[in-house]
Structure formats: C-alpha cells, structure tokens
Ferric oxidoreductase domain-containing protein
Amino acid sequence: MVASVRSWVANEGGKHLVLVLWLGANSWLFTETFLLYSTGQQYHYLYRMLGLGLCISRASASVLNLNCSLVLLPMCRSLLTFIRGTHTLPSRKTRRLLDKSKTFHVACGVAICIFSVVHVSAHLVNVVNFSVSYSDDFPALNLARYRGEDPKLIVLTTIPGVTGILLVLLLFLIFLSSSHCIRVSNYEIFWYTHNLFIVFYIILMVHMVGGALKYQINIEAHPPGCLRANQSSTERQGDELQQGNDEERCREEAHFQPHYPQTWLWVSGPLCLYCAERFYRYIRSRDPVTIVTVIKHPCDVIELRMLKEELQSSSWTVYCS
C-alpha cells in the first residue's frame, strides 16, 4: 500500500498539484472579483441597476483573462523542449510534468468554454436590466439610450455587443473543430480553425473598448446612497431606511467613467511569447531535411528516416500509417 502511494505521488503527484493550484487560482480570482463588484462602493449604483448579473459577468471575465493567458504557454513547444533538454531541471519528475503540457492546454480550453457560457449568459441578463432599470438619476451610467430599448438593439449597436458575438462564433468553431472525431478524420480543419486564435485575441482586446460598465470616481464627495437635492420623496424615504435615517447629503452629483481595458495586460505577454516562438519555428522549418531511407512495413505502415542539421539528435524516424 505504501509503495503504491509513493509510486502514485512520484508519477502523478506533480500533475495533480498543478491542477489544484490552477483550480485554486481560478476560484480565488472568481470569488475576489465577485465580492469586489457586489460590495465595492464604486459599483454601488451599477450593482443596484444590474444586480448579480454584474458580479457574475465580471467574475467570469477575470477567470477568462487568466485562462486565455495560460492556454498559450503549453503550446510553446520549442521553449518547452529547450527547458526539458537543459540540465538545470532538478529531476525526471519535472520533465514528466512538462510532458503533460497538452493536458493543461486542454484543461484551460475547457475552462474558457465553460466560463464563456457563464459570461455571455450573465451579460444577456445585464442587457435586459440596462433596458428595464434605466436610470433617470444617473444618465451616464446607462448603456441603453432610453427606458425600454430593445435589448437586441443594444447588443447590435455597441462595441462590446458586436465583438462579443464574434468571439462566441470564433470560440464555437475552435471548440467544435477540436473534437476527437474531426481531429482524426480531417486534421487540416482542426489546424486551420485553431489558428483563428490570432483573430480571437485581437477581438478580445477590443472587446472592452466600448466602456459598457462604469464605476463611480467621486465617492468622497458623493457617498453611495447619500441624499441628493433633486431626489424624489419616495426614493429619499427608501434611502433613509437603507442608511438607518442617516441625513448625510451629497456634496455633488455622482460622476462615472468606464473601466480601462485590462485584457491586453493578461494576454499580451503570452501572445507575444507564442508569436516569437512560432516565428522561430518558421525559421527552423526552412532548414533542409534529407530523407535517408523509406521502408514499407506490414499493415500499411511507412517508416521515414530523415536527417536535419542543428538538431541535438540529427537522425530521427517518423512512422506513418
């Protein structure tokens, strides 16, 4: 029993440790962002307008930013091969862990698909709330142009809405072409569709430019829920009950500004690293390859023995069936 546990820890412990750390990072980021938007004073009026849809959409967006940055790293194959081949790695366990890079890539991809569904669903609720809960007191906070505006019109006439539709379509194509049956039957579809990730990341970095969600910037001069000079008596009674009859009055009107786009901060580093790695692979692919022998084996298996310069192992064999 003890020997089997030790064997499992030696062979699978590192992989499961990385999995636990990855799940912990996703859970912490989701919870932290959710609490920020539900309790943060700068989001008080926006939260009153949109409710839980705001918290869920932003929390899922944070998880998407994390996984969109991590999903590219396992695909830097030349870099991983270089790290695996160096003598600085402490043990063979670390090398075996690097061999699981494809599994981590798939896990990040599945997380992107799941939280994209959560993100889109929450934003659909937000769009409806923008239309129904149109704020006459804070016009700058509204995404809708008037109360009762058609939610479909809001989606189709805003940058976040249009780019969101494009992102969903691209992600659907990438996810569908990644299925096992398509990869086996027609690998070219999988390959070329997966390369749409460049377009996906460009649109992703533009997605937040529209400034759909705004936060308050003058909390000290206008504490959330303070009594405004032009506030109706019904609203004032409701706010007094909420504040415990606190008579604090606003010194000025609330001012809002859209969020500074942060997605590029998450993905620009891994994206540049991956592009540099792909360029390096393109340069290496131009080196000539010499086919030494071609051997046909039973069961329609063909053995190709090739030579290529500037490789640690200059002679290598490929089996095709």
